[in-house]
Design a protein that fits this description.
By secondary structure, this protein is an alpha+beta fold. The protein is built from 13 helices and 18 strands. Among the domains are: 75 residues, Beta-grasp domain (Ubiquitin-like (UB roll), Roll), CATH 3.10.20; 94 residues, [2Fe-2S]-binding domain (DNA polymerase, domain 1, Orthogonal Bundle), CATH 1.10.150.120. The structure holds FE2/S2 (inorganic) cluster (2 copies).
């Protein structure tokens, strides 16, 4: 049941009604305080740090009900009369940020730290994660905010005259927006009537979907649409943001009758709130025919289990052995090189999967303009590839699709994958309404194209002086067919 709540934010009084389970982070964002960023939603990263009565807290794990009659400060409240607070000025001067997604939380924590050595500051800031900067510029910025700790390294010469910038450090154009919390990332925009999308994901690594019962989900109040593979066009495509002709296998569908990894998409719910959409996903019943699965690339090449067995996947280079692509490169006389080598080393290296962990999750908001143009606001690194792909999937002319990115909170290549725009666009085309899909951190780890695990065999020929004279990089047993 909703409860009434009165409090202050940045010296302004608010009275709202609020569900007891709401986090302070959610409430602040509902009130338009978009500097408070959702990253882990579990108290681990510090991007959502605000002050409650002058004490920094992680607002994602702080119940909103606890701020009754209390005072909250966000970074929007730090500067006064257009003048930056010393800590904001120091971050701006020291360029203590890159994408800026961690910066509001970082500054709200840093402002309350005692004067300390750089080493101590690093420890004290362990609750605030930054994926971009390497922390050096952050620590130096904090030191810059304390006159007694000035180090002057890495300071950025602010150059006003663009004709004299060569050879100088120049500040990021969006620096002031970042340190004041005004930088607008994809989720920091709420078109009227915005709906929210959530995806039911597979608990199985490999299975056919025999049947899906969505009746209970559809019956839930505030659910606007539920759809499955039976409701979407079945067009194979690649999610990779590469130019035509795409070098990648067309091994992806909006939704399919088969799942191929834990976290693969099964069904989609569009509802008036994230909470209702998640609740509706839990009500969907799926009957799976569980298939045997693979977890390492070497056994995958035996071909005992074929992951893409559908006829449309015939363009996959060696579908029967699960080989998505092959590259053959040769340069020089390798045998001659090995003959000249003083030492030959040969080893197999197994590398684990690596996640990019951009702090801003994959987020897309889609809507239709009055002239029918599909607008896609997305945290993408490849807006033009995204536009082309959506045009192909939905058979829409390019000039009827506008894809644009807002400020992006890190990508590191993972946002060169088109992973959220396709389904979000379909939901808008189906409902005619604005729709937002923001990945959870769990989805980032389980359902995005992290750098996959690798097994690499490398044979190197080396001279005594350390010069490499020959190198061969192959899969073990040279199992590839030419
Ligand atoms: S600590 Fe709150 S979003 Fe990470
Ligand atoms: S600047 Fe810290 S996460 Fe990008």
């Amino acid at each position: 049941m909703q409860q009434s709540l009165t409090f202050q934010i940045n010296n302004q009084k608010f009275t709202v009604t609020c569900h007891p389970g709401t986090s302070l982070l959610t409430l602040l964002r509902q009130l338009g305080l978009f500097s408070v960023h959702r990253v882990c939603d579990s108290g681990d990263c510090g991007a959502c740090t605000v002050w409650v009565n002058d004490t920094p807290i992680h607002s994602c794990i702080y119940p909103a009900m606890r701020i009754a009659n209390q005072s909250v400060t966000t970074i929007e409240g730090l500067s006064a009369n257009g003048k930056l607070a010393p800590i904001q000025q120091a971050f701006l001067q020291g360029q203590g940020f890159q994408c800026g997604f961690c910066t509001p939380g970082m500054i709200m924590s840093a402002a309350k730290l005692p004067v300390a050595s750089s080493e101590e500051l690093r420890l004290m800031l362990k609750g605030n994660l930054c994926r971009c900067t390497g922390y050096q510029a952050i620590i130096e910025s904090i030191n810059q905010s304390r006159p007694q700790m000035h180090t002057d390294t890495h300071r950025c010469d602010i150059v006003a005259d663009s004709s004299v910038t060569i050879g100088k450090n120049i500040p990021k154009q969006d620096g002031t927006a970042i340190v004041t919390g005004k930088a607008s990332y994809t989720a920091d925009f709420v078109p009227p009537g915005l709906l929210h999308l959530k995806v039911l994901r597979s608990p199985h690594p490999h299975a056919y979907i025999r049947k899906i019962n969505t009746a209970a989900a559809k019956a839930l109040s505030s659910v606007v649409a539920v759809f499955t593979h039976a409701d979407v066009p079945r067009i194979p495509y690649t999610t990779a943001g590469h130019a035509e002709p795409v070098p990648d296998p067309l091994d992806h569908y909006l939704l399919d009758h088969k799942v191929r990894f834990v976290g693969d998409r099964v069904a989609v719910v569009v509802a008036e709130s994230v909470a209702i959409a998640e609740q509706a996903c839990d009500l969907i019943e799926v009957d799976y025919e569980i298939l045997p699965h693979l977890i390492d690339p070497i056994s995958a090449m035996n071909g005992d289990i074929v992951i893409h067995d559908e006829p449309e996947s015939s363009q996959i280079p060696d579908r029967d052995r699960n080989i998505a692509g092959q590259i053959f490169l040769e340069s020089g006389d390798v045998e001659q090189g090995f003959a000249e080598a003083d030492l030959i080393l040969e080893n197999t290296y197994n590398l684990p999967a690596v996640q990019h962990v951009h702090l801003e999750p994959h987020t897309t908001i889609t809507w239709l303009e009055t002239d029918g143009t599909l607008v896609v606001r997305s945290s993408t690194q490849v807006p033009f590839h995204c536009q082309r792909l959506l045009s192909q999937i939905f058979n829409l002319p390019l000039d009827k699709i506008r894809v644009y990115k807002a400020q992006i909170g890190g990508g590191f290549g993972n946002k060169q994958e088109i992973l959220s725009e396709d389904i979000c666009a379909f939901a808008t085309l189906l409902t005619g309404k604005p729709v937002q899909w923001e990945f959870t951190r769990k989805e980032e780890f389980t359902a995005t194209n992290s750098r996959h695990a690798m097994t690499i065999r490398i044979k190197s020929g080396v001279k005594k002086d350390g010069t490499f004279v020959a190198k061969v990089v192959v899969y073990p047993k040279s199992t590839l067919r030419v």
